[in-house]
Amino acid sequence: MPTNAKSLGIDLLSLGDRMVLVEEIWDSIAAESASLEVPQSHKEELDRRLADFDSDPHSGSSWEDVKNRLQK
């Protein structure tokens, strides 16, 4: 049987209690994240992006440019 917020009673918690719960769940995931295997396709994509950067480190946008575009 699938588990959801209502079946666990999470929807009955206050907003503050749900935020604390989310933080605790995230912390528990982060504590075990080292045991997660990174898919080979992700490793290959990272290698490709690093190679692109190494070949032309000035080809991307600065953080300031990106931030300005997002704020428009």
Describe this structure in words.
The protein has 2 domains: 5-35; 40-71, no CATH class. It contains 4 helices and no strands. 65% of the residues lie in helices and 0% in strands. It has helices at 5-8, 15-32, 40-55, 63-71. The radius of gyration is 20 Å and the shape is flat. The model has no long low-confidence stretch (mean pLDDT 92). The longest helix has 18 residues, at 15-32. It has 72 residues and is mainly alpha-helical. The N and C termini lie far apart (46 Å).
Q: What's the number of structural domains? A: 2
Terminus-to-terminus distance: 46 Å
The secondary structure category is: mainly alpha
Question: Can you give the mean pLDDT?
Answer: 92
The largest sheet is: none
Helix content bin: 55-70%
Report strand %.
Answer: under 5%
Provide a concise account of the structure shown.
With 72 residues, this protein is mainly α. It has helices spanning 5-8, 15-32, 40-55, 63-71.
SSE inventory with pairings:
Blueprint (H helix, E strand, L loop, with lengths): L4 H4 L6 H18 L7 H16 L7 H9 L1
Key features?
72 residues; mainly alpha; 2 domains; 0% strand; flat
